[in-house]
Amino acid sequence: MNNQRGIVILGLGPGDAGQLTRQAWDWLSGLDEIYLRTKQHPTVAGFPAGLTVYSFDDLYDRGEQFEAVYAEIVERVLELARRPQGVTYAVPGHPFVAESTAPEIARRAKVEGLTVRVIEGISFLEPTFTALGLDPYPRLTLVDALELGSLHVPNFPPDSAVLVAQIYSRSIASDVKLTLNAVYPDQHPVRLVHAAGTMEERVEDLALFEIDRSEHIGLLTALYVPPLDSDTSLEGFQEIVAHLRAPDGCPWDREQTLQSMGAQLLEEVYEALEALDAEDADGVREELGDVLLLITMLSQIGSEEGLFNMAEVIQGIHRKIVRRHPHVFGEVNVDGTSGVLRNWEKIKEEERKQNGKEAAEKGILDGVNKAMPALKRAQAYQSRAAHVGFDWTEIEGVREKVLEEWREVSEAQGEEVEKELGDLIFAVVNLVRWYKVDAETALRKASQRFYERFRHIEQGAKTSGRPLSDLSMDEMESLWQQAKRAGK
């Protein structure tokens, strides 16, 4: 009999008793009793005769959440370890590969001063690689199906191959599929590996959309997802941009600075806006790529100058979004969009206080960039004031304000005209806001319509063989109405 005060954590291998290590078999042969995380493992049938086997399967039957089940298993194993004879606790595969309980038991035992011995086993990885005929190098991402299935988008670069472990049910497979579909097409070829390293080993070649239809999914199922093209990840794109800036890169790109890129960034954003206005999906995709190029280039320059890098840019906005959405990522309850906006302003006010006295003395309108286009800035001021309750209660009040400002324009004289016209435009912007329309976008689209209709007038003059200036106002109006009816 093996007596060991403390804990022996033993790996049972992938599922064939013949794949137990010699060390594991020798230890099992000298035991009277063993505690298993689960008996649902083929190796158990090949245990030495006379070994008393206990398991924690009863916790799985009663528990609703795996986290709670694992926590209870940890507590029970530690309690058993405090006995004079200690405990041997066995888990499928390797104790530290895709196994939640063993690392926590080892950590807690160290804190308590209990001895821990680990008898290693073959993990599910080796026979899975064999079944796939796959060398995991140079890059393979290993992820857990439960975590992946709980996400909205995959949390790994798509140009890396992925092995998804613990797809033990069709429901989990469905959750994983939905997450992967945010990036991978339905027809993306994947492989399900069932019971790798056992007599029941099976590999299915399927399209991604089919994985939750497999009849062979069980406790020993994993999913292999081949990579997308090498040019599909942010990390790969960062390497391209870094290469452009390298000594053997592009002379023009190497000359750029944070300051020289500013105008280009603004230009590309406006081109993206133009594609959005045109409802041109392909154009939006292309222009967003151009914007991403400039963001990545600016981050690369910042990294070279020791100011910031892309990871810090992403981390900063990540933390800000989580911090400003406690109603999504925390326990705060808000009442609709208006409640979200009011709470948003409270959070920003607290941030200003934390940033020091100078920031605290600024008002909520000080965060609006004064370099913004005038219409955009006006609407931003109005929206921020409305967030804290400074707003009309009904749209009729807004309409009356527009008419009031129009009357004041009609009565203005001299230098007062400019002021009153500004007030009128400001009031109209507020009306636009009440209609939940972006004033800058509305005017930009109106300008584009004017451009297209006036071009129609020019084309009409050209078709008639006359100079544009020779057309009468009635003729121009007729052509204008033609363009309008044609939807230009």
CATH A-level architecture of the largest domain: 3-Layer(aba) Sandwich
Number of strands: 10
Could you spell the SSE succession in H and E letters? EHEEHHEHEHEHEHEEEHHHHHHHHHHHHH
Helical segment tally? Answer: 20
How would the global form be characterised?
elongated
Radius of gyration: 33 Å
The portion of residues forming beta strands comes to 5-15%
Instruction: Kindly name the structural category.
Output: alpha/beta
Domain count, please report it: 4
Q: What separation lies between the terminal Cα atoms?
A: 90 Å
- What's the CATH C level of the largest domain? Alpha Beta
Largest sheet: 5 strands, parallel
Query: What multimeric state do the chains show?
Result: single chain
How would you characterize this protein structure?
- The protein has 488 residues and is an alpha/beta fold.
- It has four domains: 117 residues, Cobalt-precorrin-4 Transmethylase, domain 1, CATH 3.40.1010.10; 100 residues, Methyltransferase, Cobalt-precorrin-4 Transmethylase, Domain 2, CATH 3.30.950.10; 90 residues, Helix Hairpins (Orthogonal Bundle), CATH 1.10.287; 46 residues.
- It contains 20 helices and ten strands.
- A five-stranded parallel sheet has the order 3-2-4-1-5, with helices on both faces.
- The longest helix has 25 residues.
- The model has no long low-confidence stretch (mean pLDDT 91).
